[in-house]
Specification:
This protein has five helices and 22 strands. It is an alpha/beta fold. Helix 4 (277-284) packs parallel to helix 5 (299-313). The model is unreliable at 328-334 (pLDDT under 50). Residues 3-88 form the 2Fe-2S ferredoxin-type domain.
């Protein structure tokens, strides 16, 4: 049995197989809806059910009209009409499930590990800068991590992993991994990637939210683009900005790249920006009408940032793109 999913105030419609989520049905039909964790934990995929019924794991049977419905796991019970935050035509994703091998493990800080994985010889996984990979755990559960390498080097993965106490991967597995150990992955996932265009881009990152920004910057370099990028990277102390020297070096080589490190708890010798990344952005840009903003980090940061930009600058929500991390207790994105 199939159900028809219609998008309110548009002529868009597509079908869902019995038991298929709205997000999966949209992807199969070639439509992209924003999402991040795919586990019903973050709010990235939330939309409005304008008519019909959706069966959801976290909210039960939801009858329209209803707001804040998590479309990543909601399954139609009959024909439905929805109003997602955004929907656009997209090529149906081609994902690969592979067994990778540990190539290098580096402690970037006491709280962050950089994990380099290699694919089997001859295997590649094309992706867009900003997308993420799912690590498949022994019990079949998954943990999403942003890919920090450039899309041009798609025969390998670099992941920046924040340690979470009790984290199924970051705590219970990562510390035991050694060279050549196997890690099963599936990729790519996510709609967090820079669309083609010429408008200036602002990248907001906190902690390991730098990982997809690194991929975006390296992709910019590889494609020889000169579209202006301004990275704001926030942490508590300078040590939290574990790859800042690399970014500073790149700013010396590429005029289109600007870097503003932001610390919330700096030591007395710090002379740079202080506070929150969105406040540093607002202090630098009285006018953001021509800019696109991409934010990745804690959910608190992404929500505070879009609210501040809308309130202080009248910023269009359509030009704000976010990939929020959630705790490892449910879906450790890093």
């Amino acid at each position: 049995m199939t159900h028809t999913i219609s998008v309110a105030d548009t002529d868009i419609s597509f079908t869902a197989e019995e038991g298929q989520s709205v997000l999966d049905a949209a992807e199969t039909a070639g439509w992209a809806i924003p999402y991040s964790c795919r586990k019903g934990v973050c709010a990235t995929c939330e939309g409005t059910l304008t008519a019909g019924k959706l069966d959801t794991p976290n909210q039960g049977m939801v009858c329209g009209p209803a707001d804040s419905v998590q479309l990543c796991r909601a399954k139609p019970s009959g024909d439905v009409e929805i109003a997602p935050k955004r929907i656009q035509k997209s090529t149906p994703p081609v994902r690969k499930r592979l067994t990778t091998a540990v190539f290098k493990i580096k402690a970037a800080t006491d709280a962050v590990t950089i994990l380099d994985l290699r694919y089997p010889i001859g295997r590649r996984t094309p992706f867009k800068a900003g997308q993420f990979v799912n690590i498949i755990l022994p019990d079949g559960d998954t943990r999403p991590y942003s890919m920090a390498n450039s899309p041009q080097h798609n025969d390998a993965l670099q992941l920046h992993i924040r340690h979470e106490p009790g984290g199924a991967f970051s705590d219970r597995i990562l510390s035991y991994l050694e060279f050549h150990d196997e890690v099963e992955i599936e990729a790519p996932f996510g709609e967090f990637h820079v669309a083609d265009g010429d408008s200036p881009i602002i990248l907001l990152a906190t902690g390991t939210g730098f990982a997809p920004m690194r991929s975006i910057i390296l992709d910019h370099i590889a494609r020889r683009l000169n579209r202006p990028l301004h990275l704001y990277w926030g942490g508590r102390t300078a040590a939290d900005l574990y790859d800042a020297d690399m970014v500073r070096a790149l700013t010396q080589r590429y005029e289109w790249l600007t870097f503003t490190p932001v610390l919330s708890r700096p030591d007395p010798t710090w002379t740079g920006a202080r506070g929150w990344v969105q406040d540093a952005l607002l202090a630098d840009y009285p006018d953001l009408d021509q800019h696109d903003v991409y934010a990745c980090g804690s959910e608190a940061m992404t929500l505070a940032a879009v609210e501040a930009l809308i309130k202080e600058r009248g910023f269009s929500p359509e030009r704000f793109h976010a990939d929020a991390f959630v705790s490892s207790g449910a879906a450790n994105a890093s």
